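This section describes the prediction task in plain terms. A model, or a person checking by hand, is given the sequence of a single protein chain and must write out its three-dimensional structure as a string of tokens. No templates, partner chains or ligands are provided. The sample shown here is typical of the held-out split.
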Amino acid sequence: MKSPFPGMDPYIEPHWLDIHTAIIGEARRALNQSLPFGLVARVEERIAVESEDEPFRGIGPDVRVLNPSSTDTSEEGAGSIAIEAPFKLMVEVDPIIERFVRVIDESGQLITVIEFVSPTNKRSPGIESYRLKRADLLNAGVHVVEIDLIRAGNWRALMRPERCPPEAVSTYRAAIRTSGRPRAGYLFPITLRKPLPEIPVPLRREDKPALLPLQALFDAVYEDGRYDRTIDYAQPLNPCLEEDFDWVEALLTETGWRGSK
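The expected answer:
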């Protein structure tokens, strides 16, 4: 069953890790069905670590942060050295794997990066690391597509050095930054009240942009994840919506989801 919302469903935001992983795979599949000859989409990953004291730490994709078990203090693990000591240091938090889509040509040249923004990308100090990475990509001639479908974090800071016009402020958004001279930036406001848009993905100069059908991707992820069976729409949304609060309440009541579980 589909979500009761016509576009993005704010009730799935607490399940972002699952949604993020699934929608990245759907995006790769959709792009590989529409990319022109000579281009392919691939999924890559990096690792972020969140904790109360250190909300973000970026680590290269070929490094893993291990949380050793308290039962293996005397055993020698693969690639490690066992030390006899009064205590064994433990990692407080598990790493979060953030995935993104790369569009490359047959030679491996990177053309475009597509990011489904996570909260770690919109919090300090992680936001500074993310903006530096984005600037490096653009300076290297790589287009960057950012799709922000989660409210947590500081989206205005993520957009810097650009600013969002007051009339374009929305619950969610997608931003496209093209490389080259001069550079150009484009903003797609995304509201709760309309279906998710198709986002043009810039490619090579000779190619037309590929269209990424966000609504179809979201519908597939929602249905495959069986979120209609697990989300309790009778509960208040946290954090609540301000401008759309009455609209959300009316929608859930009219569609029969309010109080149905």
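For orientation: Confidence is low (pLDDT under 50) at residues 49-78.
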